[in-house]
Write a structure and sequence with these properties.
This is YxcD family protein. InterPro entries: Uncharacterised_YxcD (IPR020516). The protein starts with a strand and ends with a strand. The protein has one domain. By secondary structure, it is α+β, with helices and mostly antiparallel strands. The strands form 2 sheets. It has a 3-stranded antiparallel beta sheet with strand order 1-6-5. A 3-stranded antiparallel beta sheet has the order 2-3-4. The model has no long low-confidence stretch (mean pLDDT 95). The chain contains 2 helices and 6 strands; from the N terminus they run βαβββαββ.
């Protein structure tokens, strides 16, 4: 199973919205990749920016898979990849 970049962004929006008790529409996400730091995401919610590291992104993806697809995936089963865009490979 592969999640597209849009689905990863949706997963992070839902995750942050639930944690901050706001609407997912009020969360903005930009996915990033850097040669030194790897995958990350810049999240803006309630006028504040924060960065999520890869492990936080994977946590959001795990919750998204459970709520949207009823798939229980573990951290070790999720790999972020960079091709033309950032995707998540889920090995279930």
């Amino acid at each position: 199973m592969i999640l597209t970049m849009d689905e990863i962004i949706n997963a992070i929006c839902l995750h942050i919205a639930e944690r901050k008790q706001i609407r997912p529409q009020d969360v903005q996400v930009e996915l990033l990749w850097d040669e030194d730091t790897g995958f990350s995401a810049e999240v803006t919610a309630q006028g504040r920016s924060q960065y999520l590291v890869e492990s936080n992104m994977i946590e959001a993806i795990m919750r998204y898979l459970q709520s949207e697809y009823d798939v229980r995936a573990f951290r070790e089963q999720i790999t972020l990849d960079l091709d033309e865009e950032i995707t998540a490979q889920i090995n279930v």
